[in-house]
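Students often ask what a holo structure prediction actually looks like on paper. The answer is less mysterious than it sounds. You provide the chain, you provide the ligand, and the output is a string of discrete structure tokens encoding the 3D arrangement of the protein together with guanosine-5'-monophosphate.
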Amino acid sequence: MEETIFDNILKGDIPADVVYEDENILAFKDINPQAPIHVLVIPKKKVTSFNDLKDLSPEEVGVFLKGVSQVAVSLGLADDGYRIVMNCGSNGQQTVEYIHAHILGERQMKWPPG
Ligand code: 5GP
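The corresponding structure tokens follow.
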């Protein structure tokens, strides 16, 4: 797996505005926010994309997903709602080859997403 910007953020080599961290996940503000709240959540055990969840145990997938939920709630988004996005591959417009969930909140989302 090639090193990505998120590997460097995780190592602390590149600064990021971290909103939550524990032994399993890191959550930090997106550098180019698409909503008033735009946070990225990564599992510390790296896989490249949603295609590769098979390389994590059910427990690890669950811990990641529960972590995304916990961060969204801790950001105060639970009542008004929010959007979780996981882009995958070129059609999904994934630009960083390290699996991540976007948490987008504090604005009205649209559907279809485009
Ligand atoms: P993707 O397009 O792969 O789903 O999402 C990658 C996200 O990472 C983009 O929203 C982009 O703005 C964000 N991003 C890219 N480089 C950096 C960086 O150096 N720091 C932070 N905090 N976010 C980044």
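The mean pLDDT is 98.
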